[in-house]
Every structure is written in structure tokens, then in C-alpha cells.
Amino acid sequence: MFATGLADINGNSNKFNIKFMANNNLPQLKQTLNAPSVKAKFEEMLGKRAPQFMTSITSVVQNNALLQKADVNSIVMGAAIAASMDLPLNSNLGYAALVPFNSKDGCFAQIQIMAKGWTELFLRSGQCQSIINEVVYEGQLVKKNKFTGEYVFDEDAKKSDKIIGFMAYFRLTNGFEKYDYMSVEEVKQHAQKFSQTFRKGSGIWKDHFEAMGCKTVLKRLLTKYAPKSIEMQQMAMFDQNVVSGDINNLESATTRVEPTINANVEDVDFTEAEEVVEETPAPDALKDAKPDDFDF
Q1: pTM assigned to the model
Q2: Residue 213 and residue 205: Cα distance in Å, rounded?
Q3: At 169, phi and psi to the nearest 5?
Q4: Averaged over 72-98, what is the pLDDT?
Q5: What is the maximal distance between C-alpha atoms in the chain?
């Protein structure tokens, strides 16, 4: 368990310290982030932005009671993966987030790449000419053939405000293009399978179903058909996973496979990170921001 073997700064075992740390990992997290080797690694990855990024790690945990119970190494490793991809660790910005994950072995932090994170890394490949991710209203789906992957949409053919599905599209610089489409029913089936809160009728799937539908079809399209840069391959490996290893040897980092889940987050879909990260909503001016607009 997370609290096993904890001691005070002088190395003296203390039952009070163990109990306290089991419910609040902030002291240990701050101590870990202040370690010279950890600071050096983040500075190597982010340069002058490292201090602010590291502060954001503490802020994320402070604003999430569940993350305060999570294994500190999983928090630091998850944050390091986000830093290695140069993605802000703030769910309000929509690029990457840390998500608490309860298992039979204790509480851990998963790194989850959100919709803007997937889009950002795809754009960085230099092969993307265009990418679109939209809600589809009644009348706008003109033609659909799931066997050939042919979809025809007409924005001006909208008949009502009834949403019938969600689409995603990209076109590469070499001319290759691909669409994907999921009906409202297909998205609900996905949520029913992967989201515990959807099954309970609460959370972000209930409050922001449209945004969740768009994100779901976008990830499916990119993971199936987009060219796989090294960053995209790494993202696919670490996304929705607990990362283990040594921060100074990220190349050898591994993911923790948890077949048994007893958690607040169950079979989490990538878009569900916002559901469990308790932060103050971002100002409207930040909604369309890009990583380069921020000094983490």
C-alpha cells in the first residue's frame, strides 16, 4: 500500500505520519518534486517553463481529494510523460490530465491525453493539412457507408437542432483523407461500456454529452487511421495508463495493467479526465488556447 514504510524526515517510522500521508500525499509529493534529480529532468524537458509546470502538478493534486491519496511515483511519472510531450497538465485546457485510479493495490494516478492533446500531437507531425471535429445535426448527414468509410456532410442542410451524431475528419499533406462518424446511439453505447458515471446518470457525460461525443469519435479516428509519429506512438501506449519507472529513464517506463478495478474511475474513457479533476472552470479566453500560449 502507499503508506507502507513511510517515515519522518529523520527516517524514524511514525504511525501518525503514516496515517496522515495515506490520506494526503502533498508533503511527500512536494519533497519528491524538490529532489535535485527530479528538478533536473523537468528542466531538461521544459527548460525555463519547468518551475511553472512543476507547480501545476502540485496544484492539480491540491484540487483533487482523490489524487491526494494516490501513489506519488505514479503522479510524478504521469506528469513527466505529459512534460515529455510538451502538453500542459491542466484538464481545463483540454490537453492532458492526471486521473485518480483506485485498484485492489491502492490508489494511483493515470495520465490521460485529452482531445486537444491528440490534435496537437497530430498537427506536430507535419503531415496534417486539415482536421475537423464537429456535432452533426438532423439533415447534415447526406450519405453514409460504414463499409467503405464514405461519409458526405452538408452544413447547410440542417433541418433542426436535433443532434444525430458526431464526426471527425483529417486530410494529410499527401492528399490522403479519412472521415469517421458515430451516431448518438453508438456514442451512448460506448459510454455505457466505458463510463461508470454515465451508467449512474451523472458527471460530465450527462452534463456535456455533446463535447464527449466529439472527443470520442476524434480519438477513434486518429488511433485507427492517422500516421503514427514517435510522439503519437508514445501517447497511444501511455494514454489511460498508470506509468511506472524512473523519471530519469523515461525510455524504460512501463504501464501498469490493472485487470481488477474497484474505483471511482472504471474503464475510463480518455475524455473522462475532466470528470474527476476538481478545478475551477477556465475563463472563456482560455478555451481555444494552445500550449505555446502558456508558460505552464
Answers
A1: 0.70
A2: 9
A3: -155, 145
A4: 90
A5: 71
